[in-house]
Amino acid sequence: MTAVEEHATPMGHGRMHRKEDARFIRGRGTYVDDVVLPGMLHGAVLRSPHAHARITGIDVSAAKAHPKVRAVITGQDLAGLDLAWMPTLSGDVQAVLATDKVRFQGQEVAFVVAEDRYSARDALELIDVDYEPLPPVVDARRALEPDAPVIRDDLEGRTDNHIFDWDTGDKAATDDVFARADVVSTQDMLYPRVHPAPLETCGAVADMDKVTGKLTVWTTTQAPHAHRTLYALVAGLPEHKIRIISPDIGGGFGNKVGIYSGYVCAVVGSTLTGKPVKWMEDRSENLMSTSFARDYHMRGEIAATSGGKILGLRVTVLADHGAFNGTAQPTKFPAGFFGVFTGSYDIEAAYCSVTGVYTNKAPGGVAYACSFRITEAVYLVERLVDVLAYDLGMDPAELRMRNLLLPEQFPYRSKTGWEYDSGDYPATLRTALEMAHYDELRAEQAAKRERGELMGIGLAFFTEAVGAGPRKHMDILGLGMADGAELRVHPTGKAVLRLSCQSQGQGHETTFAQIVAEELGISPEDIDVVHGDTDQTPFGLGTYGSRSTPVSGAAAAVVARRVRERAKIVASAMLEVSPHDLEWEKGRWFVRGDREAGRTIQEIALAAHGDLELPEGIEGHLDATCVYNPPNLTYPFGAYVCVVDVDADTGQVKVRRFVAVDDCGVRINPMIVEGQVHGGLADGVGMALMQVMPFDEDGNHLGGSFMDYLLPTSMECPSWELGQTVTPSPHHPIGAKGVGESATVGSPAAVVNAVVDALRPLGVRHADMPLTPAAVWRAAQGSPIRT
Ligand code: MCN
Ligand code: CUM
Questions:
Q1: 571 CB under 6 A from ligand 2?
Q2: E strand or H helix at 658, and its extent?
Q3: What pLDDT score does 11 carry?
Q4: Measured on CA atoms in the order 584, 588, 590, 594, is the torsion positive or negative?
Q5: How far apart are CA 139 and CA 367, in angstroms?
Q6: How much of the chain, in percent, has pLDDT values that exceed 90?
Q7: What stretch or stretches form a coiled coil here (predicted)?
Q8: Is ipTM strictly over 0.85?
Q9: CA 610: distance to chain centroid?
Q10: Which domains does the chain have, with CATH numbers?
């Protein structure tokens, strides 16, 4: 790599260091908990010790008598304000503070506002709640049994725990294909409940100004504009009197998409006391009560010829949604984008049905780099392909190569109706196999097996669908999935880009400046990115589902091109030629055929604000706005190879190598893309080997700290070996596809496939995540948890 590539390029796309890091590495970021306002009070939430119980009484008198307590709020108080229940992102309702029952351990029951954080916490102890415990539903498979306790008896006419049935694909055609297949491999598998666990927990500082009637909320949100609209709809506040500010965010990973009870209580607390109220949850509260992810019980069937041509896929899923259906999926997609479970393969037919159920666990669902459930879908199909390879006695790389979609099949319409925009899958898989020296690895493995050593090689090939909308097909609570951008160019040629999406660590202040820099030839250092403040940015649906680059990134390019076009008109007046005679090169318009006669974008910006007689169509500056409604999703993809060594006696898994070849189209900042991939790969190792949110049979949450809920560290991660192919998206203005969740989507299957491959001499065909030493040891003893 040359020095120029390694360090900041003067402008545009390239490995530029992150602009935001200057403040982050100096400890100068401003997170929600850094916000301190005059007279600010502190809130704390009283949570349910039971997973399922009726509330028969709450006595708050002692808490109210605490000298430092300013207010105590219960569900009944909120009911009086018509705020006891709030809509969820999936159109269900969720208790802000429980009134009738508690439905998961850790559910919010009361909110105390006090002069300091310690007093607020102390006062929680003074609240006396009478609970009448009810039997809980902990296992999703129990939820639909006729005698299962009904969790949501608040919903009128509700007599069971069923939420939705959703299906996709062609059932008859799929059954047909299965009937004539030589081989059908079936596998049950669980994608366990995990938690995004960002370093910064969730919180809010709410400030209701009674004089101006304006509510300002500094809050941990990935979607400030959507939050503002929801506050307006729920609380009946006028939307222009609500300002949501999402300052620096210490990791989101989906955890900060939804609205939590604590935010709403902080707003109510501020309204009642007339003072700003801060609420920050602690680690245990975060792990217990905010967005989970996954919890999909899946049965997959794959049909093939004896020669290894995959014919069809048939899948049933039981989805555990917890006590309130709070998943953030586009309205028409109750199972998210699970419909892409046909993966990267050319098959004849596919069918899948998903049933969602209530259980006595925390709500959530759009979390942990999920790509709207594509993580589950990719895990399913990539595990199934390996199970098929096992049953056929075929090499999993060869089986994949034989079935991958070919470049000439793009744009490819999948059997479940998704239009994959572009790809050269075989080239990407070949690159990964070459980087890994696959044949040598297999030879090494064979030699080790002779000696009784367990070494495994796992593959995964994934296709993602990121960048929701278009708005016609995708909305959340009726808000169409499009994004806005505004670009102002100051007289001296410096620019401000205002975005509706919001970074939680992905480096938007750098990459979005780079997009504009590339389009206009202004240095990225001269372009400020403003985001995360609804008073300062245009409306849009925010950052999740790796949609920022596909949607807001496109908006940034389009708005920059609009500025360029306006600049062209001004330049034509400056140069006294027709705009048709002008040609663009990065940073300037010049007269066709006369390179010397040109004006830089900076000169043009100054002239646009100056005394030049401006032509028709330009009022006095170059500024432009745009709303980008994507015509389709973008489909990044990748091929991963994982190598593990397994100690059969201890069950210890060592991830020795990990080769990841990602294709996210044009890379705006390759260094940031690699960082995103590194993080996602670590996530994947964590989920495959150690992460699960466990519950006991009473519904007690057993993962409430980082001693119990394990996150991967550098100790468990190998030195990642990254490669790339570049297949631009044909419909994205700069050919970029999203990448933020790719590695989390693709890597768990690669790791599990590697571990199962290592255990193959012991006859293991499948084992469920997380493959902890105990789980691997049991599998190696011939009693896999599930086969
Ligand atoms: N990028 C690029 N070239 C591309 C694609 C992306 O340079 N072809 C850059 C982007 O400009 C952006 C970053 O990579 O700076 C990620 O872009 P994108 O894939 O569009 O994803 P988002 O910005 O929408 O981020 C969301 C995604 C999600 S949904 C989760 S979950 C997750 C993830 O990002 N959460 C993260 N990565 C995370 N990284 C950090 N540090 N913190 C989180 O909370
Ligand atoms: Cu699905 S976790 Mo991300 O989309 O914020």
A1: no
A2: strand 653-663
A3: 55
A4: negative
A5: 20
A6: 94
A7: none
A8: yes
A9: 46
A10: 32-134+202-280 (3.90.1170.50), 293-468+632-780 (3.30.365.10), 482-628 (3.30.365.10)
Structure tokens at 609: 């604000």
* pLDDT over 70 percentage in the chain: 98
pLDDT band at 9 (very low <50, low <70, confident <90, very high): very low
pLDDT at 77: 98
Instruction: Band the pLDDT of 12: cuts 50, 70, 90.
Output: low
Measure the CA–CA gap between 370 and 546, rounded to whole angstroms: 9
Q: What is the pLDDT of residues 229-247, one digit of tens each?
A: 999 988 889 999 999 999 9
| Cα–Cα dist 335/319, whole Å | 8
Ligand with smallest separation from the Cα of 370: 2
Give the C-alpha separation, 724 to 638, whole Å.
8
Can you give the pLDDT at residue 364? 84
What spacing in Å lies between the alpha carbon of 739 and ligand 1's midpoint? 6
Residue 4 in this model has a pLDDT that exceeds 60: no
Ligand 2 mutation target, pool 327, 333, 366, most atoms within 8 A of CB: 366
CB-CB contact of 226 with 542 (8 Å): yes
Q: How far is CA 431 from CA 638, 640, 660, in A?
A: 10, 10, 10
Query: Within 13 A of 111's CA, how many CA atoms are on the CB side?
Result: 32
- Contact residues of ligand 1, CB 6 A cut-off: 198, 251-254, 369, 504-508, 511, 543-549, 664-669, 672-673, 676, 679, 736-741
Q: What are phi and psi of 352, to 5 degrees?
A: -150, 140
Q: What type of residue is 266?
A: A
281 near 395, Cβ under 8 Å? no
pLDDT in tens, 653-683: 999 999 999 999 999 999 999 999 999 999 9
Q: Residue for token digits 């100056």?
A: 610
Which residue spans within 199-276 are E strands per DSSP? 203-209, 214-219, 242-245
Pick the atom of ligand 1 nearest to 507's CA. 15
CA distance 377 to 335: 10
Neighbours of 612 (CB within 10 A): 15
Phi, psi of 255 (to 5 degrees): -65, -20
pLDDT tens, position by position, 490-530: 999 999 999 999 999 999 999 999 999 999 999 999 999 99
> Are the C-beta atoms of residues 463 and 344 closer than 8 Å to each other?
yes
Residue 488 half-sphere exposure toward CB, CA atoms < 13 A: 12
Asked if the model's pLDDT at residue 379 lies above 70, the reply is: yes
Q: Which atom of ligand 1 is nearest to the CA of 664?
A: 8
Question: Residues 546, 374: contact at Cβ < 8 Å?
Answer: no
Of 520, 572, 600, the residue nearest 580 (C-alpha)? 572
Q: Which residues pair with 245 in a beta bridge?
A: 218, 533
Q: Is the pLDDT of residue 165 over 90?
A: yes
